[in-house]
Amino acid sequence: MSKPSPTARERIVAGAADMISRRGLNATSIREMAKHAGAPLGSTYHYFPDGKQQLATEAVRHTGTWVARSLRKELDAGPVAGLRAFLGLWRKIVVDTDFRAGCPVLAVSIEEPPSDETPAALLAAAEVFDEWEGLLAGSLREHGAEPEQAAQLATLVVAAVEGTVAMCRAKRSTEPLDRTAAQLQALILAATRDG
User: Fold this and answer.
1) pLDDT tens-place string over residues 73-100
2) Percentage of residues in the chain having pLDDT higher than 70
3) Of 21, 97, 93, 7, which is closest to residue 56 (Cα–Cα)?
4) Is residue 18 part of a domain?
5) In the chain, N or C terminus with fewer CB closer than 10 Å?
6) DSSP-based three-state secondary structure for 195
C-alpha cells in the first residue's frame, strides 16, 4: 500500500522545519518558508493565521514527532539501538545537506525570543526534548538502569547529540558524531544489564 501524499499544510510544516534547521528561526521569514515549501503565501496564512510563530511551533512539533516515532521503533531493541537510530537520523541530515542543516528544535531553542514572553515555539521545543528524554530514560530503566541514572543519561544523550550535530556543521565532518557515539554507547552499556 502506498503512503498518502502529504497535504499542503504538511508540506508547509516540513518545509518550515527544513528552513529553520538550515538558517534558524530569526533569519527565516514566513514568506521564505512558504516559497521553500512551494506554497502560496496566502495558503500559508490560511493554515497558520497567527503567522511565523505558529508555523515554527508546528515545525518543531513535526520534527519532534518524526524523531520520536523512529526512537520508539528502535528502542524496542534496547537503548543502544535507540542511540544508534538517534545518531543515525542526525548523521543522515548533516551529510545529505552537505552540513547545511541541523536540528530545528535546537535552532528554535538557542535564538533570542522576539519579546519578553516565552514564544510557543520555544515551549514546544522544551516538550520535544522532554519527550525524547522520556523515551530514552524509559528504555534505559527497562534494561536495568536505576531511575535517576536513566533520567540523567537520557538528558546527556539528547544534549550530547544536539551539540554534536552543531559541531558537525561547524567542522563539516561527522567525526564528532563518531566520537560521541562511542562514548555514549559505553555509558549506556555500563548503566544497563546489556553491558
Assistant:
1) 999 999 999 999 999 999 999 999 999 9
2) 97
3) 21
4) no
5) N
6) coil
Q: Give the separation between CA 33 and CA 37, rounded to whole angstroms.
A: 6
The mean predicted confidence, pLDDT, of the chain is 92
How many Å apart are CA 136 and CA 176, to the nearest integer?
21
Listing DSSP states for 133-183 in one string gives HHHHHHHHHHTT--HHHHHHHHHHHHHHHHHHHHHHHHHTSSHHHHHHHHH
Report the predicted TM-score, pTM, of the whole model to 2 decimal places. Answer: 0.92
- The grid coordinates listed for 163 are 551539540
Asked whether the beta carbons of 180 and 161 are under 8 A apart, the reply is yes
The Cα 116–Cα 128 span in angstroms is 22
**Domain ranges, residue 146:** 59-191
Residue 92: burial class (beta carbons within 10 Å; 0-12, 13-18, 19+): exposed
Which residues neighbour 38 within 8 Å (Cβ) at sequence distance 6 or greater? 11, 15
Judge whether 129 lies within some domain: yes
Residue 193's pLDDT band, with cuts at 50, 70 and 90, is: confident
CATH number of the domain at 182, please.
1.10.357.10
